[in-house]
Give the backbone structure.
Amino acid sequence: MDKREYSRKLFERALSSIPGGVNSPVRAFGAVEGTPPFIVRGEGPYIYDADENRYIDYVMSWGPLILGHAHPAVVEAVERAARCGTSFGAPTEAEVVLAETVKEAFPSIDKLRLVNSGTEAGMSALRLARGYTGRDKVIKFEGGYHGHADGLLVKAGSGAATFGTPSSPGVPADYARHTLTAPYNDLDAVRDVAKAHSDDMAAIIVEPVAGNMGVVPPESGFLEGLRELCDSIGAVLIFDEVITGFRIARGGAQEKFDIRADLTCLGKILGGGLPLGAYGGRAEIMDKIAPTGPVYQAGTLSGNPVAVAAGAATLKNIDTTGFYEALDQKAEKLARSLVDAANEAKVDVTINRVGSMMTLFFCPPPVRNYSEAASSDIEQFKQWFHAMLEQGIYLAPSPYEAAFLSALHNEEHIDITIDAARKALDNAKKTLIERNAVT
C-alpha cells in the first residue's frame, strides 16, 4: 500500500497550478527525487501528512519553531490578535514592545524596522548600508544565502577577487557586478577583495554561522577579522542572523561569539512561525531610513499584528533560565550518537553543529566552507534521506540545509531518531558499495 498516496495525488494537482507544484523550490524534493508529503497539521515535535503518516520533524519550518508546532501560548496569542483585527496599516503598541524585546536581546541594535521576511531584511539592510556609506559594492560569501533579492542572487566566483555573476535569469549582470564573493572562513581572501575596492566598499554581509551550505561555524578569529576590516575601510558589517537569531542563543551569534555587527537581519524565530523579519543596528545608520532619512523602504503588512503576536509569545517563552542549555544538551546527544552510528556503519560523515542546528555531510571532515560542503556525497544523502523518511523522520530534503531541534524534542524522540539513523546509514553504505562495484 502506498503510504503517501493522497500526497502524490495532491502533488499531481499542484503541478497544474503552481510552478513545480510548490511555493518554494526545495520543497519539490528536487535534490532527493520523489514526491513530497503534503502536511496537514503539526503538534509539538511532530508533523502529520495528508495520509496521516506521523513524522518526527527536524525541519521545524526551516528553523522558526523553536517551541515546536502549535505551541499553546503562540496559538492563543495569534487567536487573540486576529480577533482584534488582522491588519491595520497603522502603528500598534505590540510593535513597540517587540522592538524593545529585540533591542534587549541584541545590544548592537539601537533601532529596528519590522518587515515581512528575511529576504526583505537582507535587501533593505544592504540598501541602507549603501545609502549610509555612499558606496556601491558589497561582499558576500560563497554558499551564503540572504534571500532572493537581485543583488544577492550571485553565483560564487572562482577566485577571491572575482566579480559576481547572476545565478538566476532575470538578474541584470550590471547590477550583480556590484556583489563580490569570497570563500567563507578565508579572512585573507576577504581582505584582498575588500582592499582592492576599499573606496567603493559599502558592506560585508555574512551569516555568522553559515546555515545555507549546511551548518558551517566560523573559525576562530574570522568574525573578529571581518569586524576589524570593516572598521578599517569604513564599511558596514551586516550579520544575517535570520537563522541564528534567538536560535543558538537569545542574542544569536553576537552573544555566542561576543561580537557586534553594525546592522543585523532577523527573521524565522522572530515571527514564531508567521511571516516576520527585521533589520536593525546603530542609530546613526538606522536614522537614514525614511521617514527620518532619505533611504526609502516601506511595506503594507510590516509589523502585522498577528505575526507580531506570534513572535512576542515565542520570545517570551524562550526567555527562561536554562532554555538554551537544555536544547544544546539534546542537540549534542543527537550529533554525538549520529557520529557513533556512522562509525559503526563505516560511513564517512562530518557533523557540524552550533547549538540546536546541525548538518550531517557525507564526506570526511573538515567542512569549513562551501567547496568542502559541496564534496558531500549526494547519492548517499538521497539514500539516507529516504530511509529516514520511511521510518518517520522528517529531514530537510537537501544535503546543504540544517536540521533543527525544538524544546519539545525529548530523549525518546532522539533515541527513535538514532535507531532509524543506524538503518539509514547502512542503506547509504550499500549505495556506496554498489556504486564502487560498478565503477
